[in-house]
Request: fold
Amino acid sequence: MSLQHFRLDGKTALITGGSRGIGFATAQVFLEAGANCLLTSRSTTDNMQELTAMHPDRVAWVQADVTAKETPTKIVKATLEKFGKLDILVNNAGVADNGNFHEFSDGQLANIMDTNFTAPFRIAREAIKPMLDQGAGAVVNIGSISGFVANKPQLQVAYNSSKAAIHQMTKTMAFEYADRGIRVNALAPGYVVSAMTKGGIERDDYNSVWTNNTPMGRFGQPEEMANCVLFLASNAASYVTGATLVADGGYLTH
Ligand SMILES: NC(=O)c1ccc[n+]([C@@H]2O[C@H](COP(=O)([O-])OP(=O)(O)OC[C@H]3O[C@@H](n4cnc5c(N)ncnc54)[C@H](O)[C@@H]3O)[C@@H](O)[C@H]2O)c1
Reply:
């Protein structure tokens, strides 16, 4: 056993929603670990432009809405064209929306399910193909503690259901591809500081409930999630497949 197993030298990763938050932190950690990264998002950010300028040979960005019909083929093709292979997929892009179940509109429901479930399904389906040809690969789907519990105080039946679906997709894909060198795992973050949670963290009524229900008494940082993604994506996790790793400061312990 060696720490080398945690490195990603020579590997290529495709990360959706790589412009900020957990996706961007994952790109930074992956680069440090030696991987090449193809990042996708709907728009670019200063941070991402800086990262691309720093490592022009090892990072590329492709504009893509994960819900668009052509996105899976477009981003997998771009990865193969730029880096010649695809070893790791991080299905990270996601959205949240709150509301009473009985008032949640069809449009809100479609937006959540299209982005958080259908898109990761379609993107993984495309990314698996070069992995099958290589006889090796790792998929990390970003789920959530919301896939295990009802979020509070915000009401999020659709979001919670989409993340439970991601956990089940992970387990079932892992079963299907375990004997072909492809591992499939999920990460279930607790409350992490990002654009997604910013509004809630700034509201006392949300912030106090989220903090009080997290035994560590603090929010997670995107880098702490990125470290977990690195483990799951790396050979250090060579016997781990079908798992949903919970990184939540203890939220699910009670
Ligand atoms: N922040 C948390 O507390 C938390 C907790 C559990 C799970 N998560 C999950 O982590 C993942 C990353 O979220 P984050 O916290 O970094 O939030 P974030 O809002 O900063 O990042 C979400 C990313 O997804 C991208 N995205 C959203 N819709 C997209 C679309 N249609 N096409 C392309 N890109 C799209 C955004 O542009 C952004 O880059 C999400 O799947 C989220 O559900 C977050």
Remarks:
- The two ends are 35 Å apart (CA to CA).
- The chain has a mean pLDDT of 97.
- The first strand starts at residue 12 and ends at 16.
